[in-house]
Here is the input.
Amino acid sequence: MPITEILARNAALYGEEICLVEINPQIKEIKASWKDYELVETNPENRYRRVMTWREFGDKANRFANFLLGRGLTKGHKAGILLMNCLEWLPIYFGILKTGALAVPLNYRYTEDEIKYCLDLADCDVLIFGPEFTERIETIKDKIPNVKIRLFLGQDCPEFAESYYSLTACCSSVTPQITLSDDDDAAIYFSSGTTGFPKAILHDHRSLMTSCEVEMNHHKQTREDNFLCIPPLYHTGAKMHWFGSFLAGSKAVLLRGVKPEWIIKAVSEEKITIVWLLVPWAQDILDAIERGDIKLKDYKLDQWRLMHIGAQPVPPSLIKRWKQYFPKHEYDTNYGLSESIGPGCVHLGIENIHKVGAIGKAGYKWELQIMDEDGRPVKQGEVGELCVKGPGVMKCYYRNPEATAEILKDGWLYTGDMARMDEDRFIYLVDRKKDVIITGGENIYPVQIEDFLRTHDAIKDVAVIGLPDHRLGEIVAAIVELKPGASSSEAEIAEFCNALPRYKRPHKIIFEKVPRNPTGKIEKPKLREKYYGGSLVEAQTESR
Here is the structure.
């Protein structure tokens, strides 16, 4: 069943019930007094709290779909979404799907060059963007001729775009009569890699529906639950965890900000029952409690039943510490890739907290194997590459058959992660075959940073690796080899790196010869062995 039918069902059955709440705590922070704040503002983007019912969700999705259809968008076309989390994000996503076109979420941290690359790779015909990205889009507006429809979501629409609000307000809210099937293409997501720019991952409606079913099976959402969504909706992790609430017909809250006080306040005020956190946010909440910045007795938290974490390795010590303050919480961790429609192909399970440290077992509707280099299952306890199979596996890397053939073999998705299975069939990650660095749940491509650093006049060679960090999981470290006779300092290199986006800048710069093997490849395992100083999840590294 196409995922759009779930929205139609929810709108019909629960039409007047609130389905989405957007909270923007920064609005109240800039006011002199919270009590003097008026919720009704001329500009809806300046409201602290905005709500949407299931009927409004369905109507907005239908209006956007009918607008796009009126502009000639049909099956096979693609529409890029470049927005911060907001109340309009999901209706826009589903409006695109209702036309039979493909939704293409874009990482809001992308530079203008990365945005152009992804729009070109995905063959996007449409781009919907918010005011945060006006400058970046203006820089490339003449370089993306295939993007013929440019829609601006906000006030003061730039001259090179059209206003989303103005154009869709008068469109019909009647459901478009477009026939969709499970096999129809639905979305393109962008994945990380070690070769620079990301790959485009193609999923169909079956994949999206699988994600709904997997999430609800794992976390038992009911209509009484309320999910707090903090991560960006462009990411499969955030949206696919929400899919469980979507299938259950339950409420969700979009929180625009990650301060510990904001998270706890939202849980209390909105009666949240389920929260998905990244490791740094969980660490920050615990630190704020222990500093006395958050006093749990001041909040209503009894209804909060589940805290789960994904996107990076989880320190067992973190969960032990969490349970000291939240002893009644259920806990789960989820493993997945954008190629496997996000979280859930492997999950720990709320009943298996005694196995914290493992990523879990095969998820609902999923199979897994640990393979050797010849594609044969390894013996229990031996290390091999984790492979998964299920109805949520991507169709392909769009326009990249070579890369597709490397990762999809005989129905198995080769994850690139090295793992082992214990005697109870729980899976433990032992290393990443790929060189991607995961910091605070975000994937970073070392090659991009290495290529940038090599443009420095004093640098001969450079290798970028991840080092363990108590809060972020990993931080970026650059091993820099200077040219003979050249000199530089950590401060100078750090200043040079200010041209990079903040999250890509190295936290540590180490001056040393870069080791390479006889074929010229950097020997990163040697560097990791030298500088890791302990296991990935338990070691603590001071970062600037």
About this structure: Residues 70 and 171 are 9 Å apart (CA to CA). The two ends are 50 Å apart (CA to CA). Residues 32-42, 534-544 have pLDDT under 50 and may be disordered.
